[in-house]
Amino acid sequence: MPYSINPRNKGKKATSFHELTKPMKKALKKITPLTARGNRDLQMTFEDQLNSLIYYHLEEHSSAQHLLQVLKEDDFARNNIAPKEGIEKSSFSEAINTRGLQQLLEVFEALVDEARTVLPKQYSDLGDLMLIDGSLIDATLSMYWADYRDGSKKAKVHLGFDLNHSIPRKIFLTDGKGDERPFVSQIISPGQTSVMDRYHQCHKNFDQWQQEGKHFVCRIRANTNKTVIEANEIKPDSIVFYDAIVLLGTPGVNQTEKELRLVGYRVDNVNYWVATDRYDLTAE
User: Fold this and answer.
1) Contact, 242 vs 234, CB < 8 A?
2) How far is residue 256's CA from residue 274's CA, in Å, rounded to a whole number?
3) Residue 22 CB partners (closer than 8 Å, separation 6+)
4) In terms of Cα–Cα distance, which of 256, 250, 231 is closest to 264?
5) Rounded CA gap, 270 and 265, in Å?
6) Which one of 9, 26, 34, 91 has the minimum C-beta count within 10 Å?
7) Which long-range contacts (CB under 8 A, 24 or more apart) does 141-146 make?
8) Burial environment of residue 196 by CB neighbours within 10 A (0 to 12, 13 to 18, 19 or more)
9) Domains defined for the chain, CATH in brackets
10) CA distances from 47 to 22, 80, 107, 110, 276 (A)
């Protein structure tokens, strides 16, 4: 069954798309050139690939076949998205399957740098904040590096999300078994503060990050051993019920070498514990 093409105002559509992709075109001038992997010349430039991927998501196409039909039949898509000579299904599949991951990351980093100069900064009184988390994503057969198991085809994204500007800032890809904790040191720079969930609790890393001058706010397990060095005053009627300088862990087993700050607070009758090296902030 042929796909129905919804005609639109071609002039406005072209102007909107070019305005949207203008920062991307600026970034393309500085990235590593995409080269063919074999003797055959590139059938799509890297810019062609990006235009197609962006258009695919904006138009919410259901498949590559749907997109290719639109690239042939829709005037805007044929003139603004498709390569000048057009693109056949086999050439399109080859180009997309061998798209440059390095180039995608370079464009991403360039766009992040530009966005941070434009977007307003929030929570500046709390410092440079980076939320860190890992997320499993569906993998395809061409992602040979992903972790394949019976009934599970997953890759993992390790993300640093800039909380001050509300944009992703650092991205790393591994197979589905990739451990999230080693990426904290790669995502965070000295002076920044990472914000993390309980999975990232690692007393050795707490010591290492303090040594590197990388701050952290990390939720920890409630049953973690605590050796109190100094207790801080608690404000009355506060959600905070615990604030102290401590060593975490069991002595001789996994105890931190460097002291840190531990804050406990209660929301909806649930207790939460947060370890941090930020002594400059109130517990709240």
Assistant:
1) yes
2) 15
3) none
4) 231
5) 8
6) 9
7) 142/97, 145/174, 145/175, 146/175, 146/176
8) buried
9) 10-106 (no CATH), 123-276 (3.30.420)
10) 12, 11, 11, 15, 44
Per-position pLDDT tens, the chain of length 284: 333 444 455 567 788 888 889 999 889 988 888 877 767 777 888 898 899 989 988 888 888 888 899 999 988 998 889 888 888 887 887 777 766 788 988 999 999 999 999 999 999 999 999 999 988 877 665 555 555 555 555 778 889 999 999 999 999 888 777 788 888 989 999 999 999 999 999 999 999 999 999 999 999 999 999 999 999 999 999 999 999 999 999 999 999 999 999 999 999 999 999 999 999 999 99
- How many Å apart are CA 263 and CA 274, to the nearest integer? 5
What's the CA gap between 167 and 116, in Å, rounded?
A: 8
Which residue type does 256 have? T
Predicted model pTM: 0.79
Tokens 């060095």 sit at which residue?
229
Would you give the distance in Å from CA 196 to the centre of its chain?
14
> Which H helix or E strand runs over 227?
strand 226-231
